[in-house]
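Structure (tokenized):
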């Protein structure tokens, strides 16, 4: 009895694989013959490698200016490098396995070494292509001499030879760019370290020549440091460009909160122009007294003490020094740089004194209004004195203005605002009244009350200086 027949599973026909084309026997024979011709010529080149190296160095000296200079200083080193590269290249034609790895390492090392030495990358790539061209030319010449009928077979290996050259050009370029990036980072970091030490006043005398070379500035020059802070990055960048006049050499050291510019003053005109570039008014009060915050904050404005004639003088007082801005007439910041605060320090002699110049710039920056603007230290020396000794400044403000500060806030703000505005107006009650929208007699009455409370007389120069500095300390120093 026959077993029950199982039903056959249905097999769906799939895609029929196409038959692989069989390699033509003629093509294989041609490739084998081409490799035989290539190896035969390559062995001859390997034996004549010194002569091939001489030819390459001669061509480099003739066609490549960078190598012409290098051959003058280190002819043996250039020859050895070319000989080593050619040997690896020709050996790779005979043994494409391990020999090619050694050739890659050789090319990588050449690219890295030449990047460290500063040889132009274009010159290095040109040298590698010239070397490849000479190798190919040597293969053709040797085959033409020994077996002219086999020259046609070299066509079948030409692509492999030139692909090898392209591969090693890419390796050289990759190694060169990697080392170049590392060198650039080290160089920039070194410049930053040197400039930072210079600004901190921690630079050693022995480091000054290196610092001068890194910054491109002389050791015995006259310098000003500029401090830039606040605002948006774009505004700070615009301010940095506008601050330094054309033709002046400057190095900018960026920081977390403040950027410092070391500016070389090569003549008095450049020194005067720093910080006084074309400007547009920003959000700080100018000479008309209408800008800035009112009330108590305005009461703390830095007053002008020169040329004040007395409380009972109804007329304006002449400006002390022509063209110098008053305390509420600070130079606005560069156009489009709203909120950017700029401090311009005093000039110093020599790179060794740049640390002092940086402290001067920071003092000027601390005097600058929070809303933005430019302050030159030489125009704000009294305020800078107060800021440089904050404890004494607070003590002075408490001792001189204490009775006023203990009043009710509304009364206190009115008296302090009147006193500061009167000082801003060079002691003119008439002009102060116009700014405060009140009669001049009201201004005079408030000033007399300030005299009574503080025990100071505004017609006495010593008392006026104390009141001026006390108001400055209250404005600039946090409580």
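Design, position by position:
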């Amino acid at each position: 009895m026959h077993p029950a027949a199982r039903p056959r599973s249905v097999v769906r026909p799939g895609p029929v694989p196409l038959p692989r084309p069989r390699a033509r026997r003629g093509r294989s024979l041609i490739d084998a013959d081409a490799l035989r011709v290539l190896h035969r010529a390559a062995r001859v080149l390997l034996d004549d490698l010194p002569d091939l190296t001489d030819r390459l160095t001669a061509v480099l000296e003739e066609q490549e200016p960078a190598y012409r200079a290098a051959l003058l200083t280190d002819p043996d080193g250039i020859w050895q490098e070319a000989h080593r590269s050619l040997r690896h290249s020709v050996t790779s034609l005979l043994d494409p396995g391990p020999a090619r790895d050694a050739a890659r390492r050789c090319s990588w090392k050449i690219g890295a070494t030449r990047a460290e030495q500063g040889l132009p990358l274009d010159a290095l790539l040109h040298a590698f292509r010239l070397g490849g061209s000479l190798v190919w030319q040597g293969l053709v010449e040797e085959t033409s001499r020994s077996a002219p009928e086999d020259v046609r077979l070299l066509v079948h290996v030409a692509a492999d030879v030139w692909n090898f050259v392209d591969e090693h050009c890419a390796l050289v370029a990759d190694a060169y760019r990697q080392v170049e990036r590392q060198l650039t980072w080290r160089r920039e970091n070194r410049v930053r370290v040197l400039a930072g030490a210079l600004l901190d006043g921690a630079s050693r005398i022995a480091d000054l020549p290196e610092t001068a070379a890194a910054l491109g500035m002389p050791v015995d020059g006259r310098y000003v440091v500029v401090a830039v802070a606040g605002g948006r990055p774009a505004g700070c960048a615009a301010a940095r460009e506008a601050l330094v006049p054309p033709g002046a050499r400057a190095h900018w050291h960026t920081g977390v909160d403040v950027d410092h510019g070391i500016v070389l003053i090569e003549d008095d005109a450049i020194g005067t122009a720093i910080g006084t570039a074309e400007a547009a008014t920003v959000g700080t009060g100018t000479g008309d007294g209408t800008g800035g915050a009112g009330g108590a904050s305005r009461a703390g404005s830095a007053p002008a003490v020169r040329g004040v004639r007395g409380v009972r003088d109804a007329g304006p007082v002449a400006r002390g020094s022509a063209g110098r801005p008053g305390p509420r007439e600070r130079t606005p910041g560069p156009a489009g740089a709203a909120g950017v605060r700029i401090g311009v320090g005093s000039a110093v002699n020599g790179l060794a004194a740049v640390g002092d110049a940086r402290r001067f710039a920071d003092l000027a920056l601390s005097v600058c209004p929070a809303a933005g603007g430019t302050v030159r230290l030489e125009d704000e020396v009294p305020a800078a004195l107060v800021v440089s000794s904050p404890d004494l400044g607070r003590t002075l403000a408490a001792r001189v203005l204490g009775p006023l500060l203990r009043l009710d806030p509304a009364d206190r703000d009115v008296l302090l605002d009147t006193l500061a505005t009167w000082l801003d107006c060079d002691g003119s009650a008439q002009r102060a009244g116009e700014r405060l929208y009140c009669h001049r007699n009201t201004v005079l009455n408030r000033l007399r009350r300030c005299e009574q409370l503080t025990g100071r007389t505004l017609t006495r120069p010593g008392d006026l200086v104390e009141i001026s500095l006390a108001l400055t300390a209250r404005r600039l120093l946090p409580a």
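Reviewer-requested clarification: Residues 27-185 form a domain with the Globin-like fold (CATH 1.10.490.10). Residues 155-200 form the longest helix (46 residues).
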